[in-house]
Amino acid sequence: MKISMKVNGETVSAEVESRTLLVAFIREQLRLTGTHVGCDTGQCGACTIHMNGLAVKSCNVLAVQAEGADILTIEGLAGDEGRLHPMQEAFREHHGLQCGFCTPGMVMSAIDLVNNHPNPSEETIRAELDGNLCRCTGYHNIVKAVKAGAAYMRTPAP
Known about the structure:
This protein is an alpha+beta fold. It has 2 domains: 2-75, Ubiquitin-like (UB roll), CATH 3.10.20.30; 80-154, Orthogonal Bundle (DNA polymerase, domain 1). Helix content is 33%, strand content 15%. Helix 3 packs across helix 5 (140-154).
């Protein structure tokens, strides 16, 4: 099947098998390997991307279901001149990562969280990130990073 969508601001088209998962299309055909494959069952959140402005686990979506969609991956977050997105900067500053495997999905979920809850409490952050697993950090620094990222996202860029 032929599909076409916008990925990180660029229109892409390709032939895919009808059973191809969006995460496989992103990683294997587009070579955007920042979107990770963790569980293939939608439980870990490592594959989280934004589709039409909403965080989705791309291992639960067929590539053909993304026909005409606007997709944003972790690679598309950085601004002009490689400037990190405020949430990426917060994860870096507040050590919200350890091995880094969950980080792309965690950042994408955190941005969606802040878009829906601009000033989230610790309780809200923990509840909203429940679908993203981290095996290293114990979440303390992730929560701090999301709280800081929310503040950065509320502050106009210089």
